Amino acid sequence: MTELSAAIAAATERWPGITVSAAKLAELVDPDGTEEIRPDLVLACACLEGDRTALALFEERILTPVAARLNRSGIGTGAAEEAISRLRSTLFVSEPGTKPRLASYSGRGDLRGWLEVVATREAYKVARREPPAGDDHILASLPDDDDLELRHIKAQHRAELGRAFAEALALLGTRERLILRQRYLDGLTFDDVAALHGVHRITVMRWLARIEKSLLRDIRRVLSKRLQLGAADVEHLVDDARSRLDLSLHGLLATEDSP
Q1: In a shared domain, residues 20 and 125
Q2: Could you give the CA distance from residue 256 to residue 259 in angstroms, rounded to a whole number?
């Protein structure tokens, strides 16, 4: 239960304001799984429990972007809208004897990516067409998920985002940077890092959640100071940084080691 509590604590930093019970989360977690419990799985669990904040976040940050991307997929506006309408009816509630569709999300991958696959399959079913085989092919058939204005903002300020990321990384303490290096550059598991520091793996999960929060806070501060952008556009850039966190950290830490 301690691991579940730690996962919930980490998730509330990623998804502020959500509430979820550890007992309900335990029903969704694979008992034989070895991977960490993703914040996205905690969000899904909170939605299934009917938490209003979680449902609002899911609508704004997950379902709405998926709907917009599906509308641009070329499958047809009618099929796309019907698919999203069906999902709104089946994701969180179900017929007697069945589970809500969101309960089938395992937490092994990104929640938005999972929903894009589910929504695209539903749209092909509505259109009575065969979807591409395999999740990767389905995602590849969809257009870029950003609208033109947002893509322009990201492209225009990508270099500044990279500099802000590097500055935020430089502000971390020695231990924080070591933990990131062990996790993202050396590729160590939570258990490996925990053994090196003589702590439980849950402690490492908490450390990394706090470090990520600190990085994103400093990135937001630097971008807000330097760029003439509204708060919403800054948040889009911070979300971009969050989505590329693993890759960016690996690249920056590897650069530090280069002669």
Answers
A1: yes
A2: 8
Residue pair 168/218 in contact (Cβ under 8 Å)? The answer is yes
Q: How far apart are CA 225 and CA 170, in angstroms?
A: 17
Q: Indicate whether 109 and 158 sit together in one domain.
A: no
Beta carbons of 53 and 19 less than 8 angstroms apart: yes
> Can you read off the two tokens belonging to residue 115?
């929903």
Count of domains forming the chain: 2
User: Is residue 117 domain-shared with residue 245, that is, in the same domain?
Assistant: no
- Domain residues for the domain of 114 are 2-140
Same domain, 69 and 21: yes
Tell me how far apart the alpha carbons of residues 248 and 251 are, in angstroms, rounded to a whole number. 5
Q: How far apart are CA 111 and CA 213, in angstroms?
A: 20
Angle, CA of 107, 112 and 116, to the nearest 5°: 115
Q: Give pLDDT tens digits for 110-133.
A: 788 888 888 888 887 877 765 555
Residues 227 and 162 in one domain: yes
What size, in residues, is the chain?
A: 259
| Percent over 70 (pLDDT), the chain | 83
3-state secondary structure of 60: helix
